[in-house]
Every structure is written in C-alpha cells, then in structure tokens.
Amino acid sequence: MQVSSLIEALPADLTLTLVDVGSAGGTHSRWDDFRPLLSNILFDPREAAATGSFGRGATRVYPVALGEAAGEAELFLTEMVNMSSFLEPDPEQFGRYRKKSGDSAVTASEMVKIERLDDLAKRDGFKPDVLKVDTQGSELLVLKGARSALQSVILAEIEVSFFARYKGQPLFADIEAFMNAQGFELIDLLKLKRYRADNSFGIRNAGLREGERSGRLAYADAIFFRREALVLEIGKSDGGQSVLRAVVALVAYGKADLAARLLDVGRDMIGQARAVAIGEAIRSLPSPRRKRLISRLLGKVG
C-alpha cells in the first residue's frame, strides 16, 4: 500500500498509539507504511526486560502479561508454543479435531507476572488509540483490566473463539457484549480459522459446492470500531485529532469506505481542505485486486 500522499495530508505531529497485547514478534504488516506515525507499545512476557521508548516512530516493549488484576497467574505451556494459555486446554474439546490433541498437550507450566493495562497506562502516561489483543483465551480478562484505557481507543482487534477450546474460556458473544457496553460496534471478522474433525476415514475437505469448507469455525480476529457519534464527540474535544486517527486506523484495516464517511461527518472539525486532500489520497490507493494483479505481473517479469 502506497500511503505517502495520505501521510502528507495529515498534520505533521499526528501520532497514533498502537497497543499490541501478545505481540509475538512485532506488529502486523498492515502498519508498515504508517510506521512514521506510530507509537508502538508491545506486551510480550517472553521478553527478558523492558526496552525502547514512547513517542512517534518509537517502540516500547513491556516484558509482562496483562489481565484483570495485578499479581501472578499460571501459564500452561503446550506442545505447540502458540497454543500456550493462562487457561488450561480442554482435552475433550481439542481431542475431537485433527492434530489438535497433540498440539495442545500441556508440557509444563510456570508462574507469570500479571499487570493491568489501566495501571501501566496511568503510570507511564500513554493513551491507546488502537488496541490489539491476542492472548489465547484470556482476552476478556485483559479487556476487563483496561476499562479506563479503552476510553481513548478508537479501533480494537480482539481474537475471539466460537467454542470453549480452553476451560472456562469466554466466547465471541461474551467479548462482543463487553465491547458493545464500552461503546464499540463489530465491523468485521478477519482470519476465520476452522478445526477439521478427526475421523477414521481420513476425510478432511470434501465438499459438494465451490466455496464450502469443511471444519468447525474455531476462532477469528474481531474488529471493533467505536460508535461514530462517540468518535465525533471525542474529536470535538481534541480539535479533530481523534477523527484523523480513526481515519488512519480504518484505512490500515482496509475500511476505506468507512474512513471516507468519517471525513464527511467530521469535516467541520478537521477542515474542508484537509478532508478533501485526505479523501483524494485514499481514493488514489490501489484496490486489493489491482495490487494482486501488479504483484503477479511483477512476478512474471522477475
């Protein structure tokens, strides 16, 4: 994505604070073109020590896990590392699906320090604009420890589950209800993942019609956006800065149409000339279909 003209149309000091809980090696590539604007705040308990700094173009890493209450919690380590969780895997559930029983087997456990996002944000003086949470089942606990921090959040990406793979795991409906109560609306589900049922016939993906897929929907990344009226209300208090941050976040998540609408309804706050410049910059961005075509053509030339 070429966003240089979009960045040029934004105020020179605009900063977007991205908080990534369960960062697992860094932020998503969707943010690559926006890195000059970003203040990255990452949480990864596997890190040995806190590193980095705050501010535009900087990255701060916290070597802690987040939850509803400060203290310690038992982390269940699994055969497949990225299935480790603060919730115990449910062998009955995982045992129904291909390869999941072995992957989710607990190999060890350890006590891990837990902090609340609200406490750290208040102590260190940062306000999240975008929040991503992927903690393998404990997402709702993280959110409950971030009620104050959520007041500044415009867009949130939360991993949600559609059945309880871990014991006592909150499900999609629980997280959606919580986010709705905080002033957010679901706008998309990304990266829908399915588990294929284990069976003696070795059947994996047989289907009668194109586009149908076997397997049970297991989890996805739910994208929540703050209600439009609330974004505008926040924008009135900060000279339209929150509206501009929301536009950037929506473009990063491929929601150019919603970003353009926000330019329309927030035009009085951000100014006519700036709204037009940003709108034209968004209009000039290549569509995903065009980008795929260009990529294929360049591949053939190479």
TrEMBL record:
Keywords: Methyltransferase, Transferase
GO biological process: methylation
Top-rank taxon, per record: Bacteria
InterPro entries registered for this protein in UniProt: FkbM_Methyltransferase, FkbM_mtfrase, SAM-dependent_MTases_sf
Protein name listed in UniProt: FkbM family methyltransferase
GO molecular function, one term: O-methyltransferase activity
Organism, scientific name: Sphingomonas edaphi
Taxonomy of the source species: Bacteria, Pseudomonadati, Pseudomonadota, Alphaproteobacteria, Sphingomonadales
Pfam families listed in its UniProt record: Methyltransf_21 (PF05050)
Domain spans labelled Methyltransferase FkbM: 63-186
